[in-house]
Design goal:
This protein has 18 helices and 21 strands. The mean pLDDT is 94.
């Protein structure tokens, strides 16, 4: 029997104890997808044969090496998957990419199995989910109501239990509003933390790839796999960790700034969330929300909308009638602004940033409603511009201010419709924000998804001073010396590859060990390695115990990041066998 709630640890536990196999899980999910009444969730699905084939090819021996071993996921259809058309919910725009988007490639390399590509508001323009020729996905809580957008199908897939996680994108709130409307977690990472290479842009300078999951713990695990510097993305940034206090001071809306579009039940649920936060020992302080709201309104109400036109300009000018009428009206509105108007808005934004900085200085993070209310599909379709704008008053400003955010379920109105709140903090504060979000999510007992099931996996943030180490041989998962890492409470962070200019040699040591060597100018495929994390004290113990000829130096990974890692002394390479062609120590031993 597959887990009632699709969480990574629960799925892996089932695989390990033999309760079900990957083929069992994916067979059940295929049936669940086929039976699900909302046929607007997917734009394209991987064939049953491909999904089951990938599941059957998995080797349980790899479960410790691959952090997403056999985990089912879905991606928004503005994100490339090799060989599958990318439509951005516009059939005339569609193209078939030769390669996966960087984020998709990383997830698949970590063992995740793709089920399909999900519906969205066309060209990721909207927060409601009704602007697609492929239909309007519905909230998993009530089919009369919108799913939220633009990452509509991605959120519904997780909320309905069709996938364990999904990728969306988030420019103005598209990774957060649908999370609220489907009672799941929505993580909007910092700008550039996950590569947007292979993603159809909405506003390229502030687009983010986002993550939907059933828990903060799962969202952060997926982030750990998907993140990393990517030279192919001009806006990519190396991941960092901006640690916030364990017991935070949270900025909240003053009573006069609370706008719930007439939804009194949502207002009460926000008040209840604040009370619960206070009961956790967190300090609450009111902020002046006005400058944040002005920034939020500028994203669509001023010259910044021109970036949406720039993203698809050639197509838009050639085939304007192929574009959804509401989306066309929004994007075409960019033509009324001049370059001078854009600079005027940039100057205004900079002035507003000074004001928001003063408010942010009063607290560690913000705790805001994710959206003021939820609308019926019919309501949204009858007033698409105004009601959509209402949904973004607490989300639109975040990327313009280079902040991170995570949305979590926060209870239900008397009619059963969901409410949610979002923690918003400095760039690269995702770990601390996720810890806050996980605590409040559990305290409010809102559960996850349509069935409101309580996540089993709690999130514990990694300590900001933890040290990473790259291992390439006997310390790999399941290898003869891996116990040395486990004894020091080390945690596996990622299975990845080195940069291309590394070679691997089999050394004459006991037990047998490889030597990892960087050779400038060498053009290889990279060597399979694992990244582990441990406390500085334990790192010191580990290094002190290393026997010659092994040493610690800097190892550059395929994503461009550098970490401490195993290197060997040059003299021991004399007579050593070059095993680079095998791609890694594990493959060499199995040859």
């Amino acid at each position: 029997m597959i887990p009632p709630l699709l969480e990574i640890n629960a799925i892996h536990a089932g695989y390990r104890d033999g309760t079900f196999t990957p083929a069992d899980l994916f067979s059940a999910l295929i049936k669940r997808i086929n039976d699900y009444p909302d046929k607007a969730v997917f734009i394209a699905r991987m064939t049953d044969e491909e999904v089951l084939g990938r599941a059957q090819q998995l080797d349980l021996a790899d479960i410790d090496r691959l952090p997403l071993f056999g985990i089912p996921f879905v991606v928004k259809d503005n994100i490339d998957v090799a060989g599958v058309p990318t439509t951005a919910a516009c059939p005339e725009f569609a193209y078939t990419p030769d390669a996966d988007a960087t984020a998709v490639a990383k997830l698949r390399a970590a063992g995740a199995i793709l089920l399909g590509k999900a519906n969205l508001d066309q060209f990721a323009t909207g927060l409601n989910g009704t602007r697609s020729p492929y239909g309007a996905p519905r909230s998993v809580m009530n089919a009369d109501y919108i799913s939220g957008g633009s990452s509509s199908g991605s959120a519904v897939a997780v909320g309905a239990g069709l996938a364990a996680f999904s990728l969306g994108t988030d420019t103005a709130g598209s990774g957060r509003v649908p999370a609220m409307f489907n009672n799941i977690v929505g993580l909007k990472p910092s700008l550039g933390r996950i590569s947007t290479n292979g993603v159809v842009p909405a506003c390229k300078s502030i687009d983010c790839v986002s993550i939907f999951a059933n828990s903060a713990a799962d969202a952060m695990k997926i982030l750990g796999v998907a993140e990393g510097f990517d030279a192919a993305d001009a806006y990519s940034r190396p991941a960092g960790n901006q640690a916030l206090p364990a017991i935070p001071k949270l900025g909240i809306l003053a009573p006069d700034d609370r706008d719930f579009a007439g939804d009194d039940d949502a207002a009460k649920l926000y008040e209840a969330a604040l009370a619960k936060a206070a009961s956790l020992g967190w300090a609450l302080t009111e902020i002046d929300y006005k400058p944040f709201l002005e920034i939020a309104q500028s994203l669509y109400g001023g010259a910044f909308v021109a970036e949406r036109l720039a993203a698809i300009r050639l197509f838009f000018e050639a085939q304007p009638d192929a574009v959804n009428p509401v989306v066309r009206e929004i994007i075409e509105g960019a033509k009324r602004f001049s370059a001078a108007d854009l600079f005027a808005d940039i100057y205004r934004l900079q002035a507003l940033k000074r004001r928001t900085a003063a408010e942010l200085a009063k607290c560690d993070a913000l705790l805001l409603p994710t959206a003021p209310t939820i609308y019926k599909v019919a309501e949204m379709q009858s007033n698409p511009i105004t009601l959509n704008a209402n949904l973004g008053i607490y989300t639109n400003f975040v990327n313009l201010l280079d902040l991170a955010g995570i949305a979590v379920p926060a209870g239900f109105r008397p009619d059963g419709l969901p409410f949610g709140v979002t923690f918003i903090g400095p760039a690269f504060s995702e770990s601390s924000l996720a810890a806050y979000a996980d605590q409040l999510h559990r305290a409010l007992d809102a559960g996850a998804g349509a069935k409101k099931l309580v996540p089993h996996t709690a999130y514990t943030p990694s300590k900001s001073d933890d040290v990473t180490i790259v291992v390439a041989g006997a310390h790999l998962s399941g290898m003869v010396l891996n116990h040395e890492l486990l004894a020091l409470d080390a945690k596996l962070i990622a299975a990845t590859k080195t940069a291309p200019d590394y070679q691997l040699f089999a050394l004459h040591t006991a037990p047998p060990k490889p030597g990892l060597v960087r050779t400038p100018g060498f053009a290889g495929q990279g060597i399979d390695v694992e990244v582990w994390s441990m406390s500085p004290a334990n790192f010191g113990k580990f290094v002190a115990a290393l026997p010659a000829p092994m040493g610690i130096g800097k190892v550059t990974l395929a994503d461009g990041s550098e970490h401490p890692g195993f290197l060997c002394e040059a003299h021991v390479l004399d007579g050593a066998k070059d095993i680079t062609v095998f791609g890694g120590w594990r493959h060499y031993l199995n040859s």
